[in-house]
């Protein structure tokens, strides 16, 4: 058996309990477009997890969740403040700008997390008819650098946003890894901090496909069902997403999966952080390690297992662990690193 890849948690297969749930909902006909018992039960589960005020809209993928969720919060002349490394800026092929007609207002970040002082610089445009009006702050939890916002940091951002007439959006593609890392519930991290709209990810944590837009903002909720349809994200056989989420939450499967990925990341980090030649460039909070390594190490290590080189000039690499990553596989990779490093 080949060693699992460390390129992304998208590389992993589907958890057997998720596959079972898909098969179980495939035995009979059901009403389309979410008018089925699986979707009804899945929405009820989300409300149990996030609170009754949460409104839930299932979509097939993360880009769709981000673009549709954000579009529900904006007028065309309004913009989204995010860090330069944000997924909506780097890895969604301009989908946000094309679909919404709005603009991303990018600010710098060394560790993937946004700072209030950088957001404040964009507020000078408020009221100026010649400039895009900042309206939404968007953060990734976890960030593209693998760093995690604390509950207090999210609350501070939400409070700042609301005091300045802005809204807060969270790209939660890896939100399960963040919740496990912090030891908090989703409600404590999102609902109780004042987040307005959340993109809740399942694909990177054992699901086949499927994300959820969770709205806590009444105005956004009014727009979402129309935006989802117009944005080509209303899937007809929605029960195949909803059934997955039911299995995802049952017996805290989401937490078990995320914990395995996080634990394997800690195992790798602790073994390599002091090896000469490896420079960890951001705190390792969940299931991503960002590091620079000598160029000559990359090819032999990639022969062991695939991972991404994000910046060839810096030899910046990313190692991502998945819910199904095994301790033996991590140890094999550690041995290979020691071999190429001469340790």
From TrEMBL:
Residues 7-293 form the Aromatic amino acid beta-eliminating lyase/threonine aldolase domain. The keyword NADP does not apply. It comes from the Bacteria. The keyword Transmembrane helix does not apply. Its cofactor is pyridoxal 5'-phosphate. Transmembrane segments: none annotated. InterPro entries: ArAA_b-elim_lyase/Thr_aldolase, PyrdxlP-dep_Trfase, PyrdxlP-dep_Trfase_major, PyrdxlP-dep_Trfase_small. Keywords: Pyridoxal phosphate. GO terms for molecular function: lyase activity. GO terms for biological process: amino acid metabolic process. Pfam families: Beta_elim_lyase. Belongs to the threonine aldolase family. This is Low specificity L-threonine aldolase. It comes from Crassaminicella thermophila.
